[in-house]
Amino acid sequence: MATDVGLCSLELPSGQASQVGSQLPDFGSAVFWRDYLIFVTLLVGLNVAVRLNATVEFQPWPFLARLALSCSKSVSFTWKSVEDAAEPAKVVRNPNESLVKGCAGRTCWVPAAKTIPALLKEQAARNPDATFLEIWAPGRGITRSLSFRQFAGMVQNAVGWLKAKGLVAQEHIGILSQDTLEYKVLLLACMQLGAVPVLLSWRQPLAIQEAMLSAAKCTKLLASCHYEAAAKQLVKQADVQLLQMKNMTFEAGQGQSEEPGEETDGYENPVAVILFTSGSTSTPKAVPHRHSSLLWNCRNISREKSEAVQFPNAGTVCFLPNFHAIALTVNFIFNLYAGIRCAVLEAPESNPVTVDLLVGACKDLGPTVLSTVPWVIEAICKELEGGEKAASYSAVCGRLHHIAFAGAQLPRHCSEVCSMHGIRLQVDYGQTELGGPLLFGRLGAERADLLQPVPGATYSFRSLLNSSEEPRRGELVLHGAQSAAQAYLRGSQGRPLTGPGQLTAEEYWTGDIFEEVEWDGSTWLRHVSRSDDLLVHTSGEMTNPLPMEKVLGVRLGLRACVVGDRFPRPLLVLGIDAERAKEKSASELWSTIEECNALQPEWHVVLSQAQLWGLG
To answer: So where are the chain's domains?
Structure first.
């Protein structure tokens, strides 16, 4: 039994609600007469209290909640502080309004957990039989469902297995696996032991993966069956112990986990996980995120998505790479936080993500939110504009509460197409260094490219020009970003995240160019480009053309020219010296291209097939 009284959420344990009346203070006791007289005074003088509330801000409801508590020591309650949504600099925003309309003033249950394993334990106790995780396969639908209690039991069994393998608190353990049930269980088990999971990108070349292990100072490597061969190569090069997921067996148990997080590792605010940047500018940089940072992100997401998560049987579908912050924070840890369903693709190694696959998953799983990247929405819109599957796409996507996207800008016409079919979009912006989104757009807005910071965060610009004027365009600087990593791990060379002597929570440099846009009576932010030479794809991934230019220049006598404005870098024109080119065979050209490809992750291929044009 749960009751909301003003700003206080009361929860009566099952079977004890009927006993509250029998646990009143003894008649005639001092506590009885004190509470009785005050209670009667408040009821009789309710009109007076309301008038007082308007003048001196006297609020009787929290006291009534405390009075109810004094009547039953078995009643548990949690205060939910109402945060004044600080108005971001130059941003006009109703301080009590969520970006999801209709959610203003709604009080929701707020987890008290301070670590992610403690959050799982809390949900397993609060919603033991509610569905948490569903495994879905193309053509077969949902193949397995796990409740919060079952998932917590599996995590507990995995903790015992990892202990037996010698994993200890604060030890860094690399994980090389796609997003599977085993991966999610072991990720939480590592955290519960106080160890630090390091999420390796399975899309990077072997040499880069080795550099990741070294940068994060891993002593163990946990690998799935699919990456067994790569893992064995890695342990030959790095001084790490290999643990293979295939050697671990666990079944969904009923047991509760031991006290996690802060009780097991002895650190006040431990590191929860280490992510890596894309590696577009250099070797991927290791980014540590603490439990408190990721949970702070979850509170922000919960505020902005409060309407979507309140629906019965709410859940999300994503299927993005598990080492990405969108998949980790927005579609796993947040699901734990909000007590909603998350989805896992069965055998992801043999089921590449396509638009048809995502729409099929949404049809079978019935989530409230599809969390994805712009190219997926572009493909959906292309089908809606006259494809053979337009009707089915429209029906499935129209049943979603909304489609959330991040990573790159969406073409303007996509918002119009989606709106015509009753599909609502919401953009957000985050970074690996932020561990999740910190800017959100308005749900279903005509402009799906405009964002505002979450309540409590503000912004300013670092000017691109030497000007004393207040800029309205420049590198975005965030203030109050509590989730921002303070620095990359020692040994990772990267851009400065803040000024000398500053905390990133006070001032975080995003490295992205934004501009202010006036729209619908408010000031919004629009992402323009990176502040460097990176090319941003509609998948949200990035390519650095500079190493490519260097190789081509040395091997083929290249002369490069960038066409267009520096922000962004839209087109790279390559000119090859005609005299030197005469001496080059086609095989030499292709070997050079293969060398360029070897410098990039698998999605950054220069050419798979090519046409060469000769100009006059």
So the answer is: 2-79, 116-527, 544-598
As a 3-state breakdown, the chain gives helix, strand, coil percent values, each rounded to 5, of: 35, 20, 40
SS3 state at 382: helix
Q: Two tokens at 473? A: 């365009």
pLDDT given for residue 57 in this prediction? 40
**One-letter amino acid of 109:** W
Element (H, E) at 468: none
C-alpha to C-alpha distances, 347 to 143, 189, 319, 344, nearest whole angstrom: 12, 21, 11, 9
- 67-107 confidence digits (pLDDT tens): 444 443 333 333 333 333 333 333 333 333 333 333 434 45
* 602: Cα separation from own chain's centroid: 23
| Greatest alpha-carbon span in the chain | 106
* Sequence-ordered list of residues with C-beta below 8 angstroms from that of 159, at least 6 positions apart, any chain: 189, 192, 193, 257, 258
Sign, CA torsion 600/605/607/609: positive
The Cα–Cα gap between 38 and 463 comes to: 59
Q: What are phi and psi of 427, to 5 degrees?
A: -90, 150
Q: Which of helix, strand or coil describes residue 397?
A: helix
Tokens at 572, concatenated: 């790279």
For residues 216, 218, 224, 226, the Cα torsion angle rounded to the nearest 10 degrees is 60
Residue 4 three-state SS = strand
Domain 116-527 has CATH 3.30.70.141: no
Dist. CA 492–CA 482, nearest whole Å: 22
3-state SS track over 139-204: CCEEEEEEEHHHHHHHHHHHHHHHHHCCCCCCCEEEEECCCCHHHHHHHHHHHHCCCEEEECCCCC
Q: Which residues contact residue 427 at a Cβ distance below 8 angstroms, ignoring those fewer than 6 apart?
A: 404, 405, 406, 410, 440, 441, 448, 449, 450, 451
Output 495 or 220, whichever has higher pLDDT: 220
**Radius of gyration over every alpha carbon of the chain, rounded to an integer in angstroms:** 27
What pLDDT, in 10s, does the model give residues 125-143?
999 999 999 999 999 999 9
Let me know how long the chain is.
Answer: 616
**Contact by Cβ (8 Å): 261, 115:** yes
Q: In angstroms, rounded to a whole number, what is the distance separating the alpha carbons of residues 50 and 336?
A: 39
Other C-beta atoms closer than 10 Å to the C-beta of 276 total 27
**Number of Cβ atoms within 10 Å of the Cβ of 496:** 11
Q: In what order do the strands lie in the sheet with 342-345?
A: 141-147, 131-137, 342-345
Q: How far is CA 106 from the centre of its chain?
A: 23
Which residues does 547 contact at the CB level (< 8 Å), separation at least 6?
596, 599, 600
CA distance 552 to 559: 9
Number of H helices, E strands in the chain: 20, 26
Q: Which of 578, 570, 607 is nearest to 590 (CA)?
A: 607
Which residues 6+ apart lie within 8 Å of 591 measured at CB?
none
